[in-house]
Amino acid sequence: MARVVLDPIGAHLEPGEILVCPSTDPGWTPLFLTAGGLVMEMGGAMSHGAVVAREYGIPAVVGVPGATQRITSGQEITVNGAAGTVTISEKS
């Protein structure tokens, strides 16, 4: 399930939720502890979010323009980090 977060201050993810955000920096790192995946609008393979996701072993797709507008909290999404794809479930 997706959780759109625009600011890490006061943000909370339930275990396994997919973090959908504009970008990340070290202030976002605590959210990675429970995230089931990451979808980030800006960044590349060496961006903060991508590196931390690899360190925590969670799938990530970065460089997805408009992700925080196209995905809403509560939607069922699938993140395939190997293929670089994000699929929004039709049931959402």
- Mean pLDDT comes to 95
Computed over alpha carbons, the radius of gyration is: 11 Å
Shape: globular
The succession of helices and strands, N to C, reads EEHEHEHEE
Q: Ranges with pLDDT <50 over ≥5 residues?
A: none
- Count of extended strands: 6
Strand arrangement in the largest pleated sheet: 1-2-3-4
* SS class: alpha/beta
- In terms of DSSP E residues, the strand content is 15-25%
Q: How would you describe the overall organization of this protein?
A:
It is a single chain. It is built from three helices and six strands; from the N terminus they run ββαβαβαββ. The radius of gyration is 11 Å and the shape is globular. Helix 2 links the parallel strand 3 and strand 4 (60-62). The termini are close together. The strands form two sheets. It has a four-stranded parallel β-sheet, covered by helices on one side. A two-stranded antiparallel sheet has the order 5-6. It is α/β, with parallel strands linked by helices and 92 residues long. It is 18% helix and 24% strand.
